[in-house]
Amino acid sequence: MAIVPGWHYPRYVAHRGGGVLAPENTLAGMRAAQAHGYAGVEFDVMLAADGVPVLMHDPEFGRTIAGRGAVALTPSEVLVRLDAGAWKGEAFVGEPVPLFADAAYWLIQAGIWMNVEIKPAPGYEIVTGRVTAEYTARAWARREPGTPASPAPLLSSFSEDALRAAAAARPELARAMLWQRVPADWLARVRDLGCVAVHCDHRRLDAPTARAIKAAGYGLMCYTVNEPARAQEIFAWGVDAICTDRLDLFAGR
Ligand code: G3P
Ligand code: MG
Predict the structure, then answer these.
(1) What is the domain count for the chain?
(2) Of the four listed, 64, 81, 235, 253, which is most buried by Cβ atoms within 10 Å?
(3) Do residues 175 and 196 make contact, with C-beta atoms less than 8 angstroms apart?
(4) What's 157's domain CATH number?
(5) CA 57 to ligand 2 center in whole angstroms
């Protein structure tokens, strides 16, 4: 199993952009991660009705953007005018839903590593995997001369269909399989998908499974680790990286 050249983890990864410090999946979140010295961010990508990828976690409006509606049925030109910041407080009123292309450009220029989580709305797994991979590859290929070095981006998804479609579209991009709990047949599945890494919920990971994943040569990142003592415990199991909401607690490490 070859790890894709040019790809490796930073130790600490900001979850959904800026964790608890900023509205999730916004450029304000990316700026918060940068300000706290993070070398990597994770964020979620979903397709708008016109097939344009945007940063979004939930398929339905209501939690991070006001109103009612489905992201997959709303054109990107409408989504980018919605307020994705107000739910997080007055300081973020007017923070827009970012286009993935804009967020990727900003992060790459800033030298910040991207874990692009492909987050398809139900029923859109294959197209979301394909389009997200295409946009990621294009953004990475277009980084400008003089851009600070960052490791190559990593795609991940809970959807095997999305990862297969990403692999078919852009096989050169590194991919990670996301599970809440790593299944017993994890090795066969990551081999079959051509993944380089496993991402999982740290609360459902045990030391023998972590050690087996590392012994087999795969990367291993856990979400969402918000306590430094827990991070140290799972690092001792061989976990490579943690994804955290508590940017403040892990800043500068
Ligand atoms: O990619 C790790 C983590 O973000 C997965 O959970 O729901 O926050 O996207 P979620
Ligand atoms: Mg995510």
Answers:
(1) 1
(2) 64
(3) yes
(4) 3.20.20.190
(5) 7
Residue whose tokens read 């399989």: 177
Q: Which of 13-22, 67-76, 147-156, 215-224 has the lowest mean pLDDT?
A: 147-156
Closest to 62 measured CA to CA, from 54, 72, 70, 51? 70
C-beta 178 within 6 A of ligand 1: yes
Burial class (CB in 10 A: 0-12, 13-18, 19+), 232: exposed
Q: Is residue 133 part of a domain?
A: yes
Q: Which among 43, 117, 132 is the best mutation to test ligand 1's pocket, defined by most ligand atoms within 8 Å of the CB?
A: 117
Is 82 within the bounds of a domain?
no
pTM: 0.96
Q: What share of the chain is helix, strand, coil (3-state, %, to 5)?
A: 40, 20, 45
> In whole numbers, what is the pLDDT of the chain averaged over residues?
95
| Ligand 1 centroid to residue 223 C-alpha, Å | 7
Domain region containing 211: 12-58+98-250
Residues near ion ligand 2 (CB < 5 Å) are 44, 117
Evaluate if residue 1 carries a pLDDT over 50.
no
ipTM for the predicted complex: 0.99
How far, in Å, is the centroid of ligand 1 from the Cα of 140?
A: 22
Q: Does residue 160 sit within a domain?
A: yes
Confidence of residue 151 (pLDDT cuts 50, 70, 90): confident
**Ligand 1 test: best mutation among 25, 57, 113, most atoms within 8 Å of CB?**
57
Q: Is residue 42 part of a domain?
A: yes
Question: CA–CA separation, 28 vs 89, rounded Å?
Answer: 12
Q: Catalogue the active-site residues.
A: 15, 57
Q: Is the CB of 245 under 6 A from ligand 1?
A: no
Mean pLDDT (whole number) for 148-155: 89
